[in-house]
Design a protein that fits this description.
2 domains; seven-stranded parallel β-sheet; 9 strands
């Protein structure tokens, strides 16, 4: 039994003891046990995984016994730290540098994962980018902005799916989760092209689910709200703390997303019902519901 298997088994037994009463194991304990078993021993690719949601997701998968290939474009030091932390969980982990808006990078990424792990079960399309442009500043939205955001936020996800498809289908039961945004539904975000690109990703998730479902591949997405961290801090600058506090006050759950919150939602989709596909789960503490009653 591997270190990961031993750790997972110990965790499962501990959960069973905590939630058992007179030999009866509570349903939520079984759910935790079975959920961990769904991920243990599998292999995943996470794009844009050097920090933020990607890093949190890669580590969440590793903690449950899943080998991970960590893609990054520029942040090599941060990516190396994520890889080391994943390896410390007792799984295989490796780095792959490259811009997934380029098809040859996507194909190389998938080939590397299959060569390293001998299989591919999970693809997390997390890589993304934006530009902070006021919504009414149409002149600032040039061809370069449109091309870059659509290439990274939409085309890259498709290219990764295309490259991974034969291996995910061969797995028999596989998962794709793409990271969209509530901007896809609200039309409000860092800029108009960003909102449009995330809307396209949500629609593509449905199209891919239709095509790949009969082949045993579930395709879903998550739509985070404002995520606390460096990206949001760059966008709002000195007003960051006040902005986060205001957004938390507006949300019914009085909170804003952290990268781990989004990672938990992604893992929840992977561990959840086999009958959920083509869906995009909003993760925003209820912010898009609006305030008041």
């Amino acid at each position: 039994m591997t270190l990961v298997s031993q750790t997972a088994w110990a965790l499962q037994c501990s959960l069973a003891r905590v939630f058992s009463f007179g030999g009866w194991i509570a349903p939520r304990a079984w759910a935790a046990i079975l959920g961990a078993m769904r991920i243990e021993g599998k292999a995943a690719i996470v794009t844009g995984a050097s920090r933020g949601v990607g890093a949190a997701t890669a580590l969440s998968l590793a903690r449950q016994g899943c080998s991970v290939l960590i893609n990054y474009a520029q942040s090599s030091e941060e990516a190396a730290g994520v890889c080391a932390e994943a390896e410390a969980c007792g799984v295989q982990a490796a780095l792959f540098q490259g811009d997934v808006s380029r098809d040859e990078v996507c194909r190389g990424l998938v080939d590397a994962a299959v060569k390293l792990f001998g299989r591919l079960d999970i693809l997390i399309n997390n890589a993304g980018t934006t530009a902070f442009i006021p919504a009414d500043d149409f002149e600032a939205v040039n061809d370069e902005v449109w091309s870059r955001l659509m290439d990274v936020n939409v085309k890259a996800a498709f290219q990764c799916v295309r490259a991974a498809r034969p291996h995910l289908e061969a797995a028999g039961s596989a998962e794709i989760v793409s990271v969209a945004s509530v901007a896809a539904f609200t039309g409000r975000g860092s800029c108009i092209p960003y909102c449009a690109s995330k809307g396209a990703l949500v629609t593509m998730t449905k199209s891919l689910a239709r095509v790949l479902g009969p082949r045993g591949v579930r395709v879903n997405g998550v739509a985070p709200g404002f995520i606390k961290g460096d990206w949001l801090r760059r966008g709002v600058g000195e007003d960051y703390d006040a902005f986060v506090a205001a957004k938390e006050a507006e949300a019914p759950l009085q909170a804003a997303c952290s990268p781990q919150d989004v990672a938990d939602a992604i893992v929840g989709l992977i561990r959840g019902s086999d009958l959920v596909t083509g869906e995009t789960l909003t993760v925003d503490a209820g912010h898009t519901l609006g305030g008041g009653w």
